[in-house]
Every structure is written in structure tokens, then in C-alpha cells.
Amino acid sequence: MSCALPFSDEPASDRPAIRHVLVVDDSRLQRRILTASLRKWGFEISEAASGREALGICQANPPDLVLSDWMMPGMTGLEFCREFRAMTRDSYGYFILLTSKSEKGEVAYGLDAGADDFLTKPVNAGELRARIAAGERILRIERELVEKNRLVESTLLELQGVYDLLDSDLIEAKKLQQSLVAERHRDFGAAEVSLLLRSSGHVGGDLVGMFPINEMRVGLYGIDVSGHGISSALMTARLAGYLSATNPSQNIALRRNAKGEYEPRPPSETVAALNHLILSEMETEHYFTLLLADVDLGTGRARMCQAGHPCPVIQRADGKVEFVGDGGLPVGLIVGAEYSCFEAQLNGGDRLMIYSDGVSECHDPQGALLDDEGLARLMGELRQTRGMAMLESLVWKLTGFADSDSFKDDVSAVLLEIKAPPSGK
């Protein structure tokens, strides 16, 4: 039988943790003694004369608290407790065993079966109320934790949804950023140009490119925007527009001459113009390093401006490696910064590589950097490898050096290879 509590509109957090109490005892007198006190305290009560009957009640209407006699015919209170603990529940049920046993060994046996507390028979009403109050505190803490875990789980599910959406957007952003380098290889007749762009994350701050100036001249550049992630990637997209390979009128490195033809600005002038644009027109905390080159494929003369970017490397036809350049200030740091050009002569069989610091600052598991010496060694090992195969092999070599294919920084490079003259000429 049961005694239901009146409806309460108080918040769940303020409601008692124990409402429904199940009393299990084969003695009707003992059940009546217990239920009299419980009814007076306002609990909803269910009664069972055996463990089997109690299990049926627990399945139909799970109690918050069980008061069960230990010694009962058929299924003992201890056996009932084990079955009770094996049941699937939405919340924890507090279990008090009623017993005349007081030996420590017997108490330990009961705890091992899943009991939370004990009351010695005959039960004192004041002690019973105190034990129920202790159980209620435990259940309240448990249910508060369950609710908090539910909220955490719900929040995590929402965050996972946001992450999945962001991850999907970043994958699309990576595709768009990679599309900025739509042409990875081009044969200009006298020379070939290959491009490598590999971000350390979904998107990055590196950008490489080439743009034809006329039939015998080509512009090359490598850019490394400060930071990583979306804001750096947006900056590279903006810069790609300033150095457009498809729209000469939008390319800041080119200008029209008196004949209406496009010709290159001196690289230093272009870099200074970019510095002015970044500081005067863009509201950003980012700056970037840049190596801009104007290469005359007819004469082999390469005129370059270095703005904080790593020194470009020239590998001669005989395999000798030379690092050229004089450093310079990054773009977007100082108003009115001045930049200068330097030149290098490329001959048949020579090649020029512009690369980001993700290459030279790649480190091994012990933290040692590859540095210029290591890069020169790798280029020596790849002396006979040409074009895109050379750049892909370089990434493979870096993976071996770092003992990982997950680099800490973006890796990018431009490889210009001057074709060797035909044999006998």
C-alpha cells in the first residue's frame, strides 16, 4: 500500500531528495511500526512482505529509500539488496538494512552487498529520522551531480555541434586558401617554377605565388603572415589580390609604361607600397615577412627585395649551395620603413628557392633546428630531383627530420629552376 504526498510546485532543487520509501519486512507488525513514523513525516510509502514482492515494486515505482529487514524467509534482505543494486535506475536508491546483527564482520558483509546504512532492531524513531536525513543529504548531492553532469553533457553536445560546424567551415576555408595557389607548376620555356604550400593547421599564414610580367620575365614571392589560423589566412587572401597573377591591373608589383604595357616596379618600391597599405588602410595587428623577386629569364638576372623573410637559397648547377640576401624589416611594423634590392645571377642548371621559416626552423624531437646548414644538406641530397618532385621530397625529408608529419609551422616554398643549355652549347 502507499500514502501519496500532496502536489508541490516548489523548484526541484528545493524538493526533498527522499519522497518514496519502500518498507520490506515479513512481519506486518514491524511494517506498521515503521510506516506510522514515515507517514507522520510525510513520505510516500510502499510495503512488501518479501524480497520478491519488493523487487516488483522497485521495477514499477523505484523508491528513493529502502528499509529492509535482513532476516526474511525465501529471499533475505542481503540477497534483495544485491538484486536491488543490479537494477537499472535513473538515480541512486539509498538502502538501509534493519538487523539485530551488530558484529563488525556482519556489517562489513552487508556493506559489501550494497547497503548504505544499518539500523538495529527494534528501531528507534529518532535514530530512524536521523539516518533518513543523512541519506537525504547524500541523495541530494548525488542528484545535484547528476543534474550538473547532464548540463555539462548538454553543453558538450552543443559545443561539439559548434566544433563540427567550425571544422566544416575550416575545411572549406582550407580549400579556398589552397585555391589561391591554383597553379602549382608552370613551364616558362627557359625556366620552370614550382610552388609548395602546406599549412600546419586547417588554414595558415603562408602564401606563395608567381605572376608573369612578360614573355621573358616572371615575378615570384613568398609571404609569411604573423600568427596562425583564420585571421592570418584572411590576410593572405587580401595579399594574394595585391599580387594577382590573373589581373595585372590589380597587381601592385606592376605598372603601365608610356606604351601602355605592363612592366615591373622595383621590388623594393612594391614592398614599400605594401607597407604603406597595411599601416594606412588595414585595421590589423598582423604583419608579414616577404621575399619578392623579379627574374629576367633571358639574362638570368634576379632582382629581389627581402623584408624579414628567410634568405633565399641558390643551388648552382654543380650542387653548391649559396644563401643570399640582407634581411630587412617585416612589412606592416614601421611607418615609412625603407627597403632595398639586391641581385643574383642565375645560370643554366641553377635553381633559386624562396622558402618560409617553417622549413629552416623545423626541429627534431630534441628541439634542434634544421637551420641553413641542414637545409643545404637536404638540397644536396635532392640535387638530382626536379620540380614538384623536389618540393614533395623536401617535405618528406622534413618529416623524417622532425619524426612527425605534423609540423609546428606552415611550410611553403617557391622553386625556380633555370634550364641547362643543350649539351655542346
From TrEMBL:
<feature type="modified residue" description="4-aspartylphosphate">
    <location>
        <position position="69"/>
    </location>
</feature>
<dbReference type="Pfam" id="PF07228">
    <property type="entry name" value="SpoIIE"/>
</dbReference>
<feature type="domain" description="Response regulatory">
    <location>
        <begin position="20"/>
        <end position="136"/>
    </location>
</feature>
<dbReference type="InterPro" id="IPR052016">
    <property type="entry name" value="Bact_Sigma-Reg"/>
</dbReference>
<dbReference type="Pfam" id="PF00072">
    <property type="entry name" value="Response_reg"/>
</dbReference>
<keyword id="KW-0378">Hydrolase</keyword>
<dbReference type="InterPro" id="IPR001789">
    <property type="entry name" value="Sig_transdc_resp-reg_receiver"/>
</dbReference>
<dbReference type="InterPro" id="IPR036457">
    <property type="entry name" value="PPM-type-like_dom_sf"/>
</dbReference>
<dbReference type="InterPro" id="IPR011006">
    <property type="entry name" value="CheY-like_superfamily"/>
</dbReference>
<keyword id="KW-0597">Phosphoprotein</keyword>
<protein>
    <submittedName>
        <fullName>SpoIIE family protein phosphatase</fullName>
    </submittedName>
</protein>
<dbReference type="InterPro" id="IPR001932">
    <property type="entry name" value="PPM-type_phosphatase-like_dom"/>
</dbReference>
